[in-house]
Specification:
The structure is a homodimer. Chain A contains 9 helices and 7 strands. With about 230 residues, chain A is an alpha/beta fold. The longest helix of chain A has 26 residues. The first copy, chain A, has a 7-stranded parallel β-sheet, sandwiched between helices. The termini of chain A are far apart. Chain A has a single domain, classed as Rossmann fold. In chain A, helix 3 links the parallel strand 2 and strand 3. At the A-B interface, helix 1 and helix 5 of A face helix 1 and helix 5 of B.
Chain lengths: ~230, ~230
Amino acid sequence: MHLIPVGTDIMQANRETADANREAFLRNGVYAINIMSAPGAGKTSVLERTIELLKPTYRLGVIEGDLVTTFDADRIAAMGVPSYQITTGTVCHLDARMVHNSLHHFDISSLDVLFIENVGNLVCPAEFELGEDLKIMVYSTVEGAEKPKKYPLMFHEAEAVVLNKIDLLPYSGVSLDELTRNVREVNPYAPIFPVSCRTGEGLGGWIDWLKRQIDEARADRQHTISATA
Amino acid sequence: MHLIPVGTDIMQANRETADANREAFLRNGVYAINIMSAPGAGKTSVLERTIELLKPTYRLGVIEGDLVTTFDADRIAAMGVPSYQITTGTVCHLDARMVHNSLHHFDISSLDVLFIENVGNLVCPAEFELGEDLKIMVYSTVEGAEKPKKYPLMFHEAEAVVLNKIDLLPYSGVSLDELTRNVREVNPYAPIFPVSCRTGEGLGGWIDWLKRQIDEARADRQHTISATA
């Protein structure tokens, strides 16, 4: 049975908890990144590659969201990065409360960047703010060129779109041009990064952009802290 | 805002409507098949190939579920098969009520088989009965071998598992043996059909099995009708 407490606006309650998370991230100087995608698009692979390339520069931590299993958190822990697995049971997305509760398992003040890997689902995660600084999505090019039109919300909400598995494009019959045009139709501004986690192609551009977002946010915060001191 | 009427058990209400659908399908002699998968696994492609092969034998109809767009219903209509598109807006699965309402747009008494293509989502569709006779799932082998363990419910509920895009296996680094073992771990009984909708490989076995399910159900119904006459 799905029980909803009487009189609760679940989206409003989620926004309030997301605001509290945002405040905690700001206070502790940690930049939080929500990674969303359909199942199997390669969120964890993109995250592994990203961690390899950011680890020399930043102190990283990862929250993993899955229905069951700790496979993803185990993969991250194997890289020597603190990770915490949220298992949602049957819930098809992370919400702000789950992230809030998981913060008790981290010393976030010792981190520069916190990645939050959402449950694999191309629909609902985009509706739930977590208090993140940056929302990115990973999309598997093999899944077809028309999906941005059929599942527009996540493509619209993403502040960067990583198009993964481009090494399979020659075999899949999917047009990267058509896919890119369809992403643009629902999101005119977000940078689009075609990459392959298998071959490494395109990862440099993604990492350069991501570092810039992190560094600019940290500089802004430093500036705010100096100004109010 | 998400409003839930006070005191409603949404899963119980769904089951009751699903029972009404089941009764309508039985009364009209139509065999209903719910097709579920993650986005981009190839539900519509499997459906197109299946329609081609079943159309000479059965009178077919299709209900398509998507958040927005009528792309899939248009693809089916182009094959000369009656189709109706349910657009769910932001709802990430079909429920029995949506299917019930869509039946007003069909003369189901003139059909032998009704396919219901669910919204692309590896989680929630498996929780909502539609009143179908058969639940099948399509999984893209490119999405990785470990997904049956990470998203067990749909694999568990499916009465047949179609493993699509096997033509991409040599390039994707995914082991079909490992994937099959993982499906078996959460579902010991459902037949597993590795197929490629692009090359046609494996479709014969899938179609033979599906025809058998349809024919056996129709024979059972005929028997029940004769016995009660």
